[in-house]
Design brief:
Blueprint (H helix, E strand, L loop, with lengths): L1 E9 L4 H10 L3 E6 L5 E8 L4 H9 L4 E10 L1 H7 L18
Antiparallel strand pairs: 1-3, 1-4, 2-3
Amino acid sequence: MAIAGLVLLTTREARNAVWDALLAAKNITELRPGGDFCRLAAVLEAPARDMEEELLRLREWEGVLTVDIALVSYEDELADGGEIACPPHKPRKRAMPET
């Protein structure tokens, strides 16, 4: 499992609903209030190959404005197999410059 320390910023109106949803999420293993009412500190545990998808999913929750990564540890995955499984490649969307 990869372990990520996160800081989520919510709207004031959605803060309590986001808190409750994080408490119910099976891959959130720790949750604490942040520096102000709308900031929440959380620990996310997921396989390394799924980490990007999990972060994107959290960012799309109603009332979540941003999800910042404070720390990511792949220590468990490295200890298990000696390497980190990479997620599948996803093409990036880039705007073509106008000529």
